[in-house]
Design brief:
The chain is of the alpha/beta class. Among the domains are: about 180 residues, Aldehyde Dehydrogenase, Chain A, domain 2, CATH 3.40.309.10; about 250 residues, Aldehyde Dehydrogenase, Chain A, domain 1, CATH 3.40.605. Helix content is about 35%, strand content about 20%. Helix 16 links the parallel strand 22 and strand 23. It is elongated and about 85 Å long. This is Aldehyde dehydrogenase.
Length: about 625
């Protein structure tokens, strides 16, 4: 309320800032209110998960700054006296009730014992009492229920066999006070090493090599902040990009400034506060603000009737999970092959004399679908023009595993990724007539312009691959904050049905240009462009696993991707109901989503089908704070 009073004195117009006090029930009503367009939440991961579920499909913009279990890495050349003061600031500041508290101490094995002894000596000198007393180091826990939770977790940690140490002095008898606590030789999988305690409890473990330190640091569901202590700047700047954390402090902790973004990875949430990247959370492009020219008004689920698709085409599954396709004039049963490539006879067919069933594309290889089933693809007049495999959960699992195995793609230079995208564009251009004819068979309209646009889009993102870089922020320390654009990781891409080739390229190209590996679900009614496209990938030096293609039911496969805990983000263009399901399912591991209803975007327009919006969605910003000087 004091801040609101200051805003009033500063001349902020009435109604611009509104403060409502209350508990979680009040927040619940704010989240559910239809007049709210953007929600920014700071709090526990569990409540953030509830908000993600509650807002699914509502169209509300969401950014979440959630819990953490931040690592505090100390290498053997670090100044241990400075480290001790850094630990005090990291975990005992505000009694450890800070989302970015450095609650996991990872020390080089050779210096761990010395560091622990120095920490114990410093803990003995900490003063606990009223936070209004300037000579006090620690105040009280925020509430009795939180105090009880801390006690319970500490007791369970001690019972599990982790050595516990507390100072010899006693806490004040009155109030919710808890002493600073140190656990040593903690198993990395122990509950106290994985769960956010949100109290003055530090768990310590050791490592032997920098690579082991990174593995231990990343061994939690969270990814909010990290602190790296070493006198070797080469080592610090090698380790920092490898840490799954939105903020990394070198030889420091708890540094903040409005010019540098703050936010997390994984279950620590998504979105940023502060910095240029933080501003994007509160604005939208002019095309969004003014309303996009909607293809959806002219399109059914398969695409626009104006492009020659059958009128009112719908795709989905019935209650038994069987495939079905229908148009306004007829209802056809599922058209499945027997898994050997032979098609069930249809009333009309435009299939070639030698039937070819394109397979899935997983790990750089063509793979038969696990189900053994095929789906008939129909052209503009309803005739069968081909078949594709019907992917399922197991195929998605294999594709995600292949994408993870190709993680080296993120370490490739932007220049190297650019050259490969240029090569893909060149090879696609060489087969332009073939792809255009295939698009015409599926949609009934000339595909030459679409192929030309797809080639142009590949060149565009090839050019962006080594130019969409970060920034160096001028922060109020003797040092700099490096804003680094990092890939999200493994992205699940559910391509739009409209423009089967251009839509596919428009989502794949920016994702891989930024270093992500992808699992793509192509246009459901027109998937043959995607299955032909993988032969272009095979001849264009694209490493195995960078692009994986799984054909089948869009919404069924999208749900599997959204629920998969090894998928870091999902992009989806489909039905409004599908948008809600994807956003709701993504709450399992708080993955980032970009989901829009079919027809919300004009893919042929450069302002909507390509650009920085896609690059921002394909990256996350890590701010690395680097002090310098003796």
């Amino acid at each position: 309320m004091a801040f609101a009073e200051l805003a009033h004195y500063a001349g902020l117009p009435p109604g611009v800032l509104n403060v409502v006090v209350g508990d979680g029930e009040t927040g619940k009503h704010i989240v559910a209110h239809p007049g709210v367009d953007k929600i920014a939440f700071t709090g526990s991961t569990e409540v953030g998960r509830q908000i993600r579920i509650a807002t699914a499909g509502s169209g509300k913009k969401l950014s979440l700054e959630l819990g953490g279990k931040s690592p505090f890495l100390v290498f053997d050349d670090a100044d241990l006296d400075s480290v001790v003061e850094g630990v005090v600031d990291a975990i005992w500041f505000n009694q450890g009730q800070v989302c970015c508290a450095g609650s996991r101490l990872l020390a080089h094995e050779s210096i761990a014992d010395r560091l622990n002894e120095k920490l114990k000596a410093r803990m003995e000198r900490l003063r606990i009492g009223s936070p209004l007393d300037k000579a006090v180091d620690m105040g009280a826990i925020v509430a009795p229920v939180q105090l009880e939770r801390i006690r319970t977790l500490v007791e369970r940690g001690a019972a599990a066999g982790s050595p516990m140490w507390q100072p010899s002095w006693a806490c004040p008898a009155e109030g919710c006070f808890y002493p600073p606590t140190l656990f040593t030789n903690v198993n990395p999988a122990a509950e106290i090493a994985q769960v956010e305690i949100f109290g003055p409890v530090l768990v310590a473990m050791t490592f032997r090599t920098p690579s082991e330190a990174v593995e231990l640091a990343n061994n939690t569901p969270y990814g909010l902040a990290a602190s790296v202590w070493t006198e070797n700047i080469n080592l610090a700047l090698d380790v920092a990009p490898k840490l799954k954390a939105g903020v990394v402090w070198v030889n420091a902790t708890n540094l903040f400034d409005a010019s540098a973004g703050f936010g997390g990875y994984r279950e620590s949430g998504f979105g940023r506060e502060g910095g240029r990247e933080g501003m994007w959370e509160y604005v939208k492009s002019r095309s969004e603000a003014g309303g996009r020219s909607s293809e959806g008004a002219r399109a059914g689920a398969a695409g626009a009737a104006a492009r020659g698709a059958p009128p009112q085409l719908h795709d989905g599954t019935n209650g038994d999970g069987e495939r079905h396709r229908a148009d306004a004039s007829a209802t056809l049963p599922a058209q499945r092959g027997d898994g050997s490539g032979g098609a069930v006879p249809l009333p009309t067919s435009d299939l070639p004399p030698i039937n070819r069933t394109p397979k899935l594309f997983i790990g750089g290889k063509q793979a038969r679908p696990d189900s053994g089933y095929t789906i008939t693809v129909r052209g503009a007049g309803g005739a069968a023009v081909g078949e594709v495999g019907e992917g399922n959960r197991k195929d998605v699992r294999n594709a995600v595993a292949a994408a993870h195995a190709a993680s080296g793609w993120a370490r490739a230079t932007g220049h190297a990724r650019a050259q490969i995208l240029y090569y893909v564009a060149e090879n696609l251009a060489a087969r332009a007539a073939e792809f255009a004819a295939e698009i015409a068979r599926m949609t009934g309209v000339d595909g030459a312009d679409e192929v030309e646009a797809a080639v142009s889009r590949l060149f565009t993102y090839g050019a962006w691959a080594d130019k969409y870089d970060g920034a160096v922020h001028s922060v109020p320390i003797r040092g700099v904050a490096l804003a680094m654009h990092e890939p999200i990781g493994v992205l699940g891409l559910v391509a739009p049905d409209a423009h089967p080739l251009l839509g596919l390229v428009s989502v794949v190209a920016p994702a891989v240009a930024m270093g992500n590996t992808v699992v793509v679900v192509p246009s459901e009614p027109h998937p043959l462009s995607a299955t032909s496209f993988y032969s272009v990938l095979e001849t264009s030096d694209v490493p195995a696993g960078v692009v994986n293609i799984v054909t089948g039911g869009k919404d069924a496969l999208a749900k599997v991707l959204a629920e998969h805990d090894d998928v870091d983000g999902v992009w989806y263009w489909g039905s409004a109901d599908g948008v809600a399901k994807v956003e709701r399912a993504s709450a399992s591991n708080m993955k980032r989503t970009w989901a829009e209803a079919q027809g919300a975007r004009e893919w042929r327009a450069a302002g909507q089908g390509e650009g920085r919006e896609f690059l921002r969605a394909a990256t996350q910003v890590k701010n690395v704070w680097v002090p310098y000087g003796e």
